Amino acid sequence: MDDGIKQNYEGKLRISILGGGYVGLVTAVCLAELGHRVDLVDIDKERCELINAGEPPIYESGLRELLSIHACRSLHAYASYDVIKGSDMTFICVGTPQGADGSSDLSMVSSACTSLGDSLKDKEEYHAVVVKSTVPPGTTEQLVIPSVLEHSGKEISEIGFAVNPEFLREGMAIYDFMNPDRIVIGSLEERAGDLVESVYRKINAPIVRTALTSAEMIKYASNAFLATKISYANEIGNICKRLGIDVYDVMKGIGLDHRIGPAFLNAGAGFGGSCLPKDLSALIALAEDLGEDPVLLRSVMSINERQPLRMVDLLSRRVGDLRGKKIAILGLSFKDNTDDVRESRSIDVINELILRGALVAAYDPRGSTSMKRILPDISYHPTAAEALRNADACLVMTEWPEFGLLDDEFNLMRSRVIIEGRRVLSCKDREGICW
Ligand code: NAD
After folding, report:
1. pLDDT tier for residue 12 given thresholds of 50, 70 and 90
2. Per the residue annotation, which of 48, 93, 240, 275 is the catalytic one?
């Protein structure tokens, strides 16, 4: 191993991170907390200014506290790639959204690699490039490595490559980063893998060392499995509802079997967020591309697409024609404890309500600002009580704990028709999507 890097090991590594979103920023503050010197690069200048001012551009529990400790001390944000060559290694954490055909859109990874390669041209010491973004198997070998080598003009012996997928849950991201179930490191050669392993030396978790493509696949296979558990619970829940069986009792009975486990069995309105839907979709697209027929994965997706619409059907059965009716929506973020509304099930529900002529009054503790960009024409309220006032019905879409305390507030409604898409309420007269 290069002496320069070995010396840094005893003290700290100098790590650069590309992309300061949910994954990049959380990685940055946590690596700073672990004692490393972190340079974060994001093409969004305003985001960099906020980070340097100690102001989190996203909501994530504990993020403000860590940022206030490390911003402009061991963590600096830049809108330029110039800083990269001074670091030992670079984590790529840019977005990989869903493309129009369902596959993963790798344009941000591609442009990050071009800039990264350019910025490494004059670096003389060894550098490691670590892909943390979720990318389809083969991306590091076929896109990242050729692009970084071409633009840097370097040989494969001068730059190491690794894949280190991220498994954090939004809302719990900092806790999850610091307390992972496992750390997966795929690498082309030992040296890059060892360097990534040394980054996490203060974290106590099993390390899984693999080939590059296996590490990429582990991330997709994990998310597809989690999505499968949810759609399974929802399908069983839909059957239970018809039979008058409480699906939560059933899932408790199932989840205690150690071969199954209790997590991700909460029946409800389906999964959303920036990961499960797009990663499942990308895996389906990849399988089809390879000539496979991913029957199970497609069913998981199809259950998830239909599930939120069951909320609207249930509502119609309770209140009849929705034209002109005021419907309160409690919860816009895709889950509690986050402001992220990407692929939130409430988007499908609200669009269907608008289509059927309803008037939507929405409230979310954190997600309204982001949702206004997607759905600007519904009314947003500062409290649940305000959204509920004079409503003909209410749909609960996110399991924010504060919703569990609501009861008298529902008396502000014109009629107490309360339908839950997440099991969170404590009032007796609520009806669940599948309970
Ligand atoms: P995000 O959209 O929140 O953040 C991406 C950031 O990258 C943005 O700030 C954007 O300005 C920046 N960016 C785009 N192009 C850039 C470039 N060329 N150079 C520098 N910065 C650039 O995305 P995210 O939710 O943090 O996800 C990042 C990756 O991590 C994705 O591949 C995602 O699938 C994966 N992932 C996300 C989560 C999650 O819960 N959000 C969990 C695990 C893995």
Report:
1. confident
2. 275
Whether 131 lines ligand 1, by a CB cut-off of 6 Å, is no
Pair (58, 156) in one structural domain: yes
Residue 84 CA to residue 98 CA, distance in Å, equals 28
Enumerate the β-bridge partners of residue 40: 17, 77
Under 8 Å between Cβ of 412 and 394: no
The CATH number of residue 265's host domain is 1.10.1040.10
Distance, in Å, from the CA atom of 47 to the CA atom of 235, rounded to the nearest integer, reads 41
Whole domain around residue 261: which residue ranges?
220-306
pLDDT in tens, 70-100: 999 999 999 999 999 999 999 999 999 999 9
Q: Are residues 170 and 244 in the same domain?
A: no
The reply to whether ligand 1 has any atom less than 6 angstroms from the CB of 57 is no
The set of residues, in sequence order, having a beta carbon less than 8 Å from that of 287 and lying 6+ positions away, is: 293, 294, 297
Is 213 buried (19+), middle (13-18) or exposed (0-12) by CB count in 10 A? middle
Q: Does the beta carbon of 403 lie inside 6 Å of ligand 1?
A: no
Contact 142, 106 (CB under 8 A): no
- Dig out the tokens for 10 from the structure: 């005893």
Q: Over the Cα atoms of the chain, what is R_g?
A: 23
Distance CA 381, CA 328 (A): 10
Residue 339 in contact with residue 171, Cβ under 8 Å? no
pTM value is 0.94
Please say which residue of 210, 235, 254 terminates a domain: 210
User: Half-sphere exposure of residue 21, counting CA atoms within 13 Å on the CB side?
Assistant: 18
